[in-house]
């Protein structure tokens, strides 16, 4: 963890500054001009634990202290501060950088990423089985223009990423190794861009979210739903967008449609059932014994146990979410939408979901309205390899979010 010395931490500027750095994951050390009672300083820090914040006593003269809290809010004040101790050491901000001075707090927030040092990231260095996933200590990524630095609350597991890890997507989805896993992100903005400011809660479909911090173009992020815990919202982007596009764009489900959702117990299926119900369809869903109750609770009108009963026919549309659908499914509906293997039928489409922040924002609105529920099974980042292994054995159901616990 990076330690950030904050000079003048007990002042009007210093207090929120300390809190910003701590939220950004840095260890804050405060430096006081005079030997200060840590208990009194802790109280002055308005809730910041003086011991956990690493308060150090520092006699005057050993450091270039700057009591910015006493002299005003501009960085100029900080730069000129040491002048009190024996002559000017530098000029104003504009003289030094050519840029206008800003409030110290603003400057510190904008530069927070530069103080963060390293982080843990779940990466693959080569393609292979789940043992190729390792937790590595790597530099915190720096956001470029138009990019946001996010403190990640959670990512989620998507089966396609197991395919990526095995190297099966090499031809369609080239990545540079080592590669940080994690397409779904839910987190808090550290360094803002594009209308997002520090502290905003966001979600999105990005690259490299299986880490303590991630950068993403502001344009692919949307505000996180407020009704559910932030980490749970990591379940939404890939699975929710795929379900959204299957139901509304490809199947074009409307009121009175009879839709068969094959594979409703999975991450995509749980969203698809709810969206199809919201569209006014009669929803027939396939689910095994372990998922039947959840699928029914989310609104399916009929739940067929695919481990025991044949799939029912007479549907307007079949949305297939199961790998390798049998050829016989073509007898079950008039139209077909598949997100996995192709279905050989003139009225069948197969698609790969696209990143669509507009659709994601609409989905977030439905979540906040209580129309769409988000159910998750949460695991820690350290267990990501185990999640991949469990998925390969068919041992996970619904949506697994992978929490980045600090
Ligand atoms: N094209 C795209 O853009 C796109 C996007 C996302 C995902 N995908 C792919 O779509 C598939 C589904 O994704 P997902 O995230 O929903 O996967 P998932 O969460 O891993 O799905 C697992 C679920 O599949 C169900 N299942 C397994 N075999 C079944 C069968 N024969 N009949 C009915 N249900 C069965 C199980 O339900 P029970 O618990 O009821 O047994 C299990 O809970 C994956 O192959 C994934 O790679 C494609």
UniProtKB/TrEMBL annotation:
Query: What residues does the Enoyl reductase (ER) domain cover?
Result: 128-402
SMART domains, sorted: PKS_ER (SM00829)
What Pfam families does the database record attribute to this sequence?
A: ADH_N (PF08240), ADH_zinc_N_2 (PF13602)
InterPro entries found in the cross-reference section: ADH-like_N (IPR013154), Chloroplast_QOR (IPR052733), ER (IPR020843), GroES-like_sf (IPR011032), NAD(P)-bd_dom_sf (IPR036291)
PANTHER family the UniProt entry points to: ZINC-TYPE ALCOHOL DEHYDROGENASE-LIKE PROTEIN C16A3.02C
Q: What is this protein called?
A: Alcohol dehydrogenase catalytic domain-containing protein
């Amino acid at each position: 963890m990076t330690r950030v010395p904050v000079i003048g931490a007990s002042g009007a500027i210093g207090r929120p500054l300390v809190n910003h750095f701590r939220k950004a994951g840095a260890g804050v050390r405060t430096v006081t001009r005079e030997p200060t009672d840590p208990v009194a300083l802790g109280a002055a820090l308005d809730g910041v634990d003086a011991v956990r914040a690493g308060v150090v006593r520092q006699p005057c003269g050993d450091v270039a202290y700057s009591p910015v809290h006493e002299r005003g809010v501009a960085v100029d004040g900080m730069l000129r501060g040491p002048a009190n101790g024996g002559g000017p050491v530098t000029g104003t901000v504009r003289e030094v950088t050519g840029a206008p001075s800003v409030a110290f707090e603003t400057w510190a927030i904008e530069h927070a990423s530069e103080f963060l040092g390293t982080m843990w990231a779940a990466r693959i260095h080569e393609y292979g089985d789940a043992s190729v996933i390792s937790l590595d200590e790597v530099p915190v990524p720096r956001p470029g223009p138009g990019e946001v630095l996010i403190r990640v609350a959670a990512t989620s597991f998507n089966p396609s990423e197991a395919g990526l890890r095995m190297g099966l997507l090499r031809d369609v989805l080239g990545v540079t190794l080592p590669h940080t896993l994690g397409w779904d992100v839910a987190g808090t903005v550290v360094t803002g861009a594009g209308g997002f400011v520090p502290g905003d809660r966001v979600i999105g479909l990005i690259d490299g979210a299986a880490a303590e911090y991630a950068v993403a173009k502001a344009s692919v992020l949307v505000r996180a739903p407020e009704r559910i815990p932030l980490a749970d919202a990591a379940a939404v982007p890939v699975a929710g967008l795929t379900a959204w596009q299957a139901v509304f764009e490809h199947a074009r489900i409307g009121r009175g449609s009879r839709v068969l959702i094959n594979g409703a117990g999975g991450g995509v299926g749980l969203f698809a059932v709810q969206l199809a119900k919201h569209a006014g369809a009669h929803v027939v869903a396939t689910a095994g014994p372990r998922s039947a109750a959840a699928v029914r609770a989310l609104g399916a009108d009929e739940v067929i146990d695919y481990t025991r009963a044949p799939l029912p026919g007479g549907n307007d549309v079949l949305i297939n979410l199961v790998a390798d659908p049998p050829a016989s499914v073509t007898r079950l509906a008039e139209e077909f939408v598949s997100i996995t293997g192709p279905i050989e039928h003139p009225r069948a489409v197969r698609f790969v979901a696209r990143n669509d922040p507009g659709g994601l924002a609409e989905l977030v609105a439905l979540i906040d309205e209580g129309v769409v529920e988000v159910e998750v099974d949460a695991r820690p980042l350290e267990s990501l390899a185990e999640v991949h292994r469990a998925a390969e054995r068919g041992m996970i159901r619904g949506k697994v979010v992978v929490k980045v616990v600090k």
